[in-house]
Structure formats: structure tokens, C-alpha cells
Amino acid sequence: MSEYRSITALDQLLDDLVVGEARRRQLSMVRGELLRALARGALPVPARRSLRRLLEEDSLGPYLRLAESGALRTRLVDGKRPPTSAATNEIRRQVLDVLREALGLPALQLGGGALPLQPTPQFGDLAALRRQLDQDLAGHMSPGQARLTAVLGLVLDAAPRSGELVELRLDDLAAGIAAVYIERRPQRGGGDQDGEGSWYELSPLTRAALGRWLPVRAELAQHAHGTSRLWVSLWHNHDGDPGREGATLNRPPGMPLEENGLITSYRRGRARYGLAGLLPPKLEQLRRAVIAETPPVATETAESS
To answer: Which fold has domain 121-304?
Structure first.
């Protein structure tokens, strides 16, 4: 047990996280750096006692500056502790987001230092991912796996952003599930024009995946009195403060899935459905890997004329 209660709580959190071997090593790296930062007295005193305070931005700002400077290295490089690489800095921030998500905290917004998300090299063979999804479609699928497989198929075919995915509706699918209409919603001044959309032809894999998801979706949507959104929730949940009487709003299964829910389902599905070795940690990385392999090409359909 650590002398710091926050690190003891962090160790318990790490024990419960379901992640791959590579991510486990990265989590261990960050855990060690946080411990050394606390030992140096570099972080606010409350960060010693509370994991939540340790992972708040006023603690992580000083930690990141110290870690990126190389001061928290355990090994010397030519007798020195040089700054860590840009790739390591980005991995460190990704790991912190994983930890913050596990505590119900939003992604970091510290600015500076982070790299644009790029495809993770070891996940470049998207053909292996397609083969695995095709095999999965031949067997039994839970509702969650059916939904995730359909999401992945659309990303592989059209490379939509998460915000574009959650806005999809049933009438964005062409007759026979032959194509999908994506209205581009670029971030940070992206190349696509906001509000402009195109139709993208769907592969046999994606058509089969949507064929598995749509009946499940229809049954779920009945619980919520119907919605035209393509992605819906699987379980009962609520909005508001459950600790205050009358301050919560019950949400039955079949409610429209929001962007945070979609991203969370992707992260959890990687491990739950045996895809951690084929999918990068973030959905955005998969999208960029698809674009790097073969940029999706818009197609003409009857609906687009």
C-alpha cells in the first residue's frame, strides 16, 4: 500500500480496468510518474489524499509539465534526463483520459503539447479487422456487439467522425442498405465544409452488420416510443442527480445514443469483444487509419440527385 491514499486508490482502479498489455504498460508508466511527482512535492497537497484531486486539471497541469521535461524519468540517457518524445507525451495524455473517464471526468483540456491523433502503426492492417468482423457476423452476437460491429463497418466504409455518426438517422440509409449519407461536421477548421454531405457506398460487411443491428434497434426503440436515430442505448439509465429526490429523469433503453455514449461503447467493446489487438484505443484513430489506407469516395445515389 502506498503512503499516498490517492495512489492506493489509483492502484485499485487499475486492477479493475480491462485493457491490453500495451496499455497496461502505459498505465504503469503514468502511475510511477504520478508517484514520483507527489514524492517531489510538485503537486497540490490534496492530490496526496484523493484520486479525484490527483486527476483534476490543477494537479495534472504541473505533472505533465514535469513529466514532459524528463524530470520524472527513472533511467538516465547519456547521463541526463532529456525531455520525453512527442509520441510519449501523447500516449501520456491518452492514458490520463482513460483514467479520468473511469472516474467520470471529461477529457483533458489543458491545451498545447498534444499531437493530432494519428493512426497507430500496429493497427494499420485493417484487412485483419475486416476479416474478424466478418467471422463475428457468422455467429451469435449480443446487442452491444451487433451495434459496435455496425459502427465499425460504417467507419471502415465512410470514415465519419463520432459526432457525424451519432447524428445518423434511418433515412440516411439508402434502400437496401446500399449506401449511407454522411453530413460532415469538421472540427478545428477541418477540410470538409460544415453542413455538406455525401453518399458513400456500403460494403457487404457493413450491410450485413447493419442487417444484424437494425432489428435489435427497432425492438429497443419501442421502449422509448420510437426515434429515427440510427444508434440507440441498450440499457436503462438516468439523467440528473440520483442523490436528490425528484432530480433524476429515467431514460429507458432505446433512447438516442449521444457522442460520449458512442465513444464509451467503442472503448469498452474493444476488450469485451476481443478486438483490442485490432482496434486503436480511440475511435478517431481508427477513422484516420481508414483515411490513410484508402480515403472513402463519395458515390451518386438516387437519393442524392
So the answer is: hpI Integrase; Chain A (1.10.443)
